Amino acid sequence: MKRSTKLLTMLVASALIAGALAGCGGGDKKAADTIKIGGNLEMTGGSASFGISSKNGMDLAIEQINAKGGIGGKKLSLIVADNKSEAAEATNAMTKLVSQDKVCAVVGPNLSSAVIAAGAINNGSKVLDVTPMGTNENVTVDKATKKVKPYNFRACFIDPFQGTVMSKFVSEELKLKNAAIYIDNSSDYAKGLAESFVANYKKLGGNVVATEAYLQKDTDFKATLTKIKAANPDFIYVPGYYQEVGLIVKQAREIGLNVAIGGGDGWDSAKLPEIAGKDALNNTFFSNVYSPDDTSDLNKKFVAEYQKKFNAKPDVFAALAYDSTMLIAKSIEDAKGPDPVKMAEAMAKIKGFQGVSGEVTFDEFHNPVKSAFILEHKDGKQTFKAKVNP
Predict the structure, then answer these.
(1) Would you say residue 8 has pLDDT above 90?
(2) Residue 81 in contact with residue 12, Cβ under 8 Å?
(3) Do residues 41 and 83 lie in contact, with contact meaning Cβ atoms separated by under 8 Å?
(4) Tens of pLDDT along 45-56?
């Protein structure tokens, strides 16, 4: 009985290893000429615009890599799993990509809570994951043990930096000293930004005159906004995602709350002006890790090629997913092949990588050190306001 169990275990282990090798280019001749990369993306659900833009960025990166002969003579292929903008579905999508599709690396999800939930799967399977826009600190660091997750990286900055950047901009550039905080209480992302904003804003002499909360998928915010209005703030910090943010801005203006409003990169969507209304978005600002108006030669080329392919300007999700894919390609090159363990080791050593969103050098927590942009809405269009270096 013991001998049969041991033999069965050996056979199962051998099968798993063979499957993994097949996914990374082993197996039949067609598979041997292909390297599979997964996309754990928000293709449907409340944050679908994030996933669609990310897929566009990945498609463009893979098209360019393959046009140059691929990596080591092997072409990249993209397999997308829809996480439906939900953390539980992100875990299911990651399981499918690493266990069934046998990808060597994954880009996404974009939502911090989804990356954190799915992290147990890709780390347990020893498969590299790069999130384009998961900014919460716990994306790459285990909250309980404080240890770095070996197979999780990000292409964006983290919440403390983003919150600090916006608090400094509001205090020193806009010179506004009385802020209200309106948090998405169901989002790790929103809580992280709010915490860092408040801490630094107070250090700079600012006052928090009100703190209120809402939940994702809420649609009526007027009662809470009326409470905020009564506190007489000159600025409202709303570090949420565009779906609710658009309604919050719209309803704030409808009740005569015409103060400046700001947030984080979750605002970055072409859908936001449609939801809020162009006029309502005037006097609003958000921090971001990318601006299509950045004048670097690499970014200008990327914007031109993206517009040609998709007939639209790239947003931050397209740009960061593009960079994430290019980072994975570099890790394959540096690892001398698509070995997921060696790729993660190679990724951690990347320094001075030139991406369309700026230079990437990973710190010991797998976070890139990079600049932030402050963007302002003017008549429904994003305009460059300021660049803040780390």
Answers:
(1) no
(2) no
(3) yes
(4) 999 999 999 999
The C-alpha atoms of residue 308 and residue 152 are separated, in whole angstroms, by: 32
Q: Is the pLDDT of residue 23 over 60?
A: no
Please write the tens of the pLDDT for every residue from 155-176. 998 888 889 999 999 999 999 9
Percentage of the chain beyond pLDDT 70 is 92
Query: For residue range 184-198, what is the model confidence (pLDDT) as tens digits?
Result: 999 888 998 999 999
Does a cis peptide bond (omega within 30 degrees of 0) precede residue 150? no
Residue 14 has pLDDT above 90, yes or no: no
The answer on pLDDT for 91 being more than 50 is yes
CA angle 208, 214, 216 (to 5 degrees): 135
d(CA 166, CA 161): 9
- C-beta of residue 53 within 8 angstroms of C-beta of residue 314: yes
> Which value, in Å, is the radius of gyration of the alpha carbons in the chain?
22
Distance between CA atoms of 37 and 63, rounded to whole angstroms? 13
Q: Please name the helix (run of DSSP H) or strand (run of DSSP E) that holds residue 10, with its range, or none.
A: helix 2-23
Closest CA to 272 of 240, 242, 241, 237: 242
Question: In this structure, what is the dihedral angle of CA atoms 182, 187, 191, 194, given to the nearest 10 degrees?
Answer: -40
Across the beta sheet with 260-263, the strand order is 207-214, 178-184, 235-237, 260-263, 284-288, 372-378, 381-388
- Give the C-alpha separation, 52 to 46, whole Å: 12
Is-contact 167 370, C-beta < 8 A?
A: no
The neighbour count for residue 333, using CB atoms within 10 Å, is: 13
